[in-house]
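User: Show me a protein chain along with its predicted structure.
Assistant: Here is one chain, sequence first, then structure tokens.
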Amino acid sequence: MENNGMLDSRQRLRREKLIERQALAPEARQLIGAAMVPRLLALYPIQKAQRLMAFASLPHELELDPFLHCWLQQGRELWLPRVGPDQSLEAVPFTGWEQTALSPQGIREPLGPAADPAALQVILVPGLAFDPQGHRLGYGRACYDRFLAPLPKHIFTCGVAYEFQIVEQTWPLPHDVPLDWIITERSEIAVNMEFF
């Protein structure tokens, strides 16, 4: 019974955050996306990284394109996620938007061979809600948790979110993998200080 209550709470939180995200005006999303560039670049693990995996933003997600553009201009390696045939997440080096295709979920995914994610130094992670312990609530498919769980601990994992996506409780499940850091347009949550 308690487990059902927890799952109900997670579903309710998902719905709330989807509604809040959809209510954000396009102009506000663009402003926040631009404001996130210096905030992300100021993080020490990102400053020293050469190989970073980010994500191609969905409609209403925090707009990461300005950061991706800046990262590439600096001549550093960018990788993006792709959902494989078995619904597992793959890390694929990004070579340009012309080398991407829309997934059935409407996500811009890179073409080309997947690479070993253990070679990454930083992974930026999307989500619907994040809590102070570094747990994230995604869309319910556990793709990121399965992807992150076996990776080496020297890879810095950072949730990227709007401030309103920070909540007190996400009701994590046993397989949920906490992140090292969470950053929004207004605040940061330090979960693991070992990278600083």
